[in-house]
Amino acid sequence: MHAAPALSPTSDAPGAPGSSPDGTAAGTAADVPERGVVDRVVSWYDEHARDLPWRAPDRTPWGVLVSEVMLQQTPVVRVEPAWRAWMGRWPTPADLAAAPTADVLRAWDRLGYPRRALRLQQCAQVVVDRHGGQVPDDEAALLALPGIGSYTAAAVRSFAFGRRAVVLDTNVRRVLARAVDGHALPAPAQTRAEVERAAALVPDDDASAARWAQASMELGALVCTARAPRCDECPLVSSCAWVAAGRPADLHAHRRRTQAWAGTDRQVRGRIMALLRESPVHVPEPVLDEAWSATPQRARALAGLLADGLVVEHQPHPDEPPSYALPG
DNA sequence: AAACCGGGGCC
DNA sequence: GGCCCAGGTTT
């Protein structure tokens, strides 16, 4: 079908694992094809890593976990100030676990997908109750936490504990799709084969694996971007299969469908949540009705929020309309 | 496998 | 106005 990929895991002979950090820091060109993909990307990262607070030396595993949950579908630029405020207010799992849920949802503000905030607090409670207040470092225990899936579990293991993990997010998927497969973008759904291919590229030792995880994600975020990749700044350009093929268009373009937004239940939920976040007191139903004019959709959205535990209902008197508020 | 779940910024 | 963003959970 296709020619041998320009890059392959076997071209990445780990060489001397503990060799890099001392001497020459890749003086000029990071793009030396003779070096493995991993080495080139890690060297690039050493010079171009962003200075993000959840990467600071004084970071905690809990801080890393909080950042990863916030970063699920929310861009870094919007997460950074929210993370600083959040960690200043609730530095430990015990702090968050003890907070009123309404405060947590207000602090989440407009990061989106507020169920994440709810699950993050539940996660804090589980960490306190079942792990002595310490974030666990093994895969199964992390995956068992609310709101933590395969990506976030791997990211926490790698970024917080420096352990080997297959960290495969949208950035890494795109980097590998281009550099190895020669595709403009990865397939819409992650496949098992894709995970195994990514796993084969991860260095064997913990420290190198953790650096590769950080570096490959950063390359995807800063250089190998979805929209306008900066191939002239890429340490892999000389061996990139996608560049070699002339940067062909996306194979799956016809299958991608962007989520509708205007007029959806999600927009109505967002308006209701915004209204309740801003109200210090319970909101009577007639006031809540201002969030959306179409009654059936408004009712459906509210029912969903109640079912999710993001909103609670109060009805002091049976002959009066109920009122609504954030929980706790 | 597909649907559902926010919100903002950039092209 | 379309597209993208350090995904997870549910059906």
From TrEMBL:
Pfam families: EndIII_4Fe-2S (PF10576), HHH (PF00633), HhH-GPD (PF00730)
Gene3D superfamilies in UniProt: Helix-hairpin-Helix base-excision DNA repair enzymes (C-terminal), Hypothetical protein, domain 2
Residue segments, region Disordered: 1-32
Domain HhH-GPD: 70-222
Any GO BP annotation: mismatch repair
Catalysed reactions, semicolon-separated: Hydrolyzes free adenine bases from 7,8-dihydro-8-oxoguanine:adenine mismatched double-stranded DNA, leaving an apurinic site
Cofactor: [4Fe-4S] cluster
Domain of life: Bacteria
Keyword vocabulary terms for this entry: 4Fe-4S, DNA damage, DNA repair, Glycosidase, Hydrolase, Iron, Iron-sulfur, Metal-binding
Cleaved signal peptide residues: none
Major enzyme class: hydrolase
The enzyme's E.C. designation: 3.2.2.31
Gene Ontology terms for molecular function: 4 iron, 4 sulfur cluster binding; 8-oxo-7,8-dihydroguanine DNA N-glycosylase activity; adenine/guanine mispair binding; metal ion binding; oxidized purine DNA binding; purine-specific mismatch base pair DNA N-glycosylase activity
Family: Belongs to the Nth/MutY family.
Protein name: Adenine DNA glycosylase
